[in-house]
Amino acid sequence: MKSRAYISIGIPFYNTENYLEDAICSVLAQTYQYWELILIDDGSSDKSLEIARDFESRDTRIRVISDGLNKKLPYRLNQIVREAKYDYIARMDADDLMSNHRLEKQIQVLESNKEIDFVTTGCFTIGKNNELTGVRLGDNYSQS
């Protein structure tokens, strides 16, 4: 019997209290449930860390890391790689939302095509009032 693939998802955040909860909820809403979520605070001074810790207290798959320092995005992205427990790593920004099937579709591609090391997604961009402002899709986009 084939073992199930697990994914480490990393979200670095800095002062994103207005978006972080929605980002985390989009991870929780995934159809693929075999993941850990690493939330890395980059020295936030708003309620972002409090929001992250609240989710950590409710779901054992969520882990919050905070050293109180502002080390910037490149450092935090490398930290996600170091902290990841699993071979597959997905990242997103704290103001992003995942499609409910993102992880399911990406893991299916990776597991079925061992010669592929990296997959990406398209995105919809929204404005301050949640209005659609743009769509970016990759060259090999498929709605399947």
User: Which parts are unreliable, with pLDDT below 50 for 5 consecutive residues or more?
Assistant: none
* Residue fraction in strands: 15-25%
- State the helical fraction: 25-40%
Strands across the major sheet, in which order? Answer: 3-2-1-4
The succession of helices and strands, N to C, reads: EHEHEHEHEE
DSSP strand count = 6
- Our Rg estimate from Cα atoms comes to 16 Å
Give the overall pLDDT as a whole number: 91
- Largest beta-sheet details: 4 strands, parallel
Enumerate how many helices there are, as a single number.
Answer: 4
**What is the end-to-end distance?**
26 Å
- Categorize the overall geometry: globular
Secondary-structure-based class equals alpha/beta
Question: What characteristics describe this protein?
Answer:
144 residues; alpha/beta; four-stranded parallel β-sheet; two-stranded antiparallel sheet
